[in-house]
Amino acid sequence: MFRKDKRTVLRLALACALLPAFGAAQAQSALPSYPSRPIKFVVPVPAGGAADVMARMIATHLQAKWGQPVVVDNKPGAGSSVGMAQVAKAAPDGYTIGMGNVAANAINPAVRPESFPYDPVKDFAAVTMVGITPLILVVNPQKVPARTLPEFLAYLKAHPGQLSYGSSGAGSALHVGMELFMQKTGTSMVHVGYKGSAPMLTDLLGGQIDASMDAAATSWPHVQSGKLRALGVSTAQRVDFAPDLPPIAQTVKGFEMNPWHGVMAPAGTPPAIVDKLAAEIQSFLRQPDTEARLRERGVVRVGSSPAEFAKTLRDEAAFYKKLVADAGIKAE
Questions:
Q1: What is the CATH number of domain 37-132+259-327?
Q2: What is the DSSP code (8-state) at residue 238?
Q3: Angle at CA 109, nearest 5°, toward 55 and 268?
Q4: Could you check whether 37-132+259-327 and 135-250 share the same CATH topology?
Q5: Helices 288-296 and 271-285 meet at what angle, rounded to 10?
Q6: 310-319, pLDDT tens digit by residue?
């Protein structure tokens, strides 16, 4: 009797041990059918910018690799929340993905939490962080005599509240980046919000405002031409496209801002599909030609795992919630 029971127990134990492998095999066997139809890739910003370029590069690669159309759909508006709301509400089947960013998934939810159309963390399945678009602290050299960041800090402290800085709007990464800078340095400037970075940059070049914490992709060409002066980069490390530009953190302890862009799917998307997307995109991002093309656009390539990106989402949401509250940033 005991021997028979023992054999039964052993058979059950073996069956239980094989269940995970069987489940994995089933998931893998289902993967070849994905994708079996076109994928919509929502980009919550206008065409032409760094995020749009990243998305189109990825879409072209996935389409060539998998033989299914990957259609980029630009849905700008409301600080990127229009497009990402569409992703959040889509069927979690892998056929709608989006290019999330720090504004849509961290800053704007903190600025207007009561009216936000989705939870910036819980409503998404993180796939991979594609890249970071560093900000650079720039000044109009005709208006601001400082040539280095320490000189700029001394100038700000000698002229409290007398300088102005521009951003692409209240709650934008450009706005929050400068608020963090002033918070860390105990300085003050007047904020001038614009409807987008293009009109802000026009006024900065024209001398209507004095400074900005602008995206490197848009300001760096003007630094190279001498029309603007760069004083520091927002990332903790130097960047390849400007190796001589020191990090702001070198002078301002604790300052770091990494405006990121990453691929997301609706919450509930099967892990096997998330992993397949992540693996293919990561492989593409590791190619030297891909990294070189991103660098030309002022993008620092990342290519994180789904778990790493999910942790970043949680950490960034918490960080900006506190920063927005401490700085008293309000929606326009």
A1: 3.40.190.150
A2: -
A3: 60
A4: yes
A5: 80
A6: 999 999 999 9
> Is the torsion defined by CA of 219, 194, 117, 119 positive or negative?
positive
d(CA 304, CA 214): 25
Q: What is the DSSP letter of 236?
A: S
Q: Is 11 left (phi over 0), alpha (psi -120 to 50) or beta?
A: alpha
24-58 per-position pLDDT tens digit: 444 444 456 999 999 999 999 888 888 899 999 99
**CA pair distance 251, 230, nearest whole angstrom:** 14
Closest CA to 76 of 98, 43, 107, 51: 43
SS3 content of the chain, % helix, strand, coil (to 5): 50, 20, 35
- Would you say the pTM of this structure is higher than 0.85? no
Q: Where are the domains of the chain?
A: 37-132+259-327, 135-250
CATH architecture of 135-250: 3-Layer(aba) Sandwich (3.40)
How far is the CA of 99 from the CAs of 102, 260, 296, 314, 319, in angstroms?
10, 10, 20, 17, 21
Distance CA 10, CA 166 (A): 71
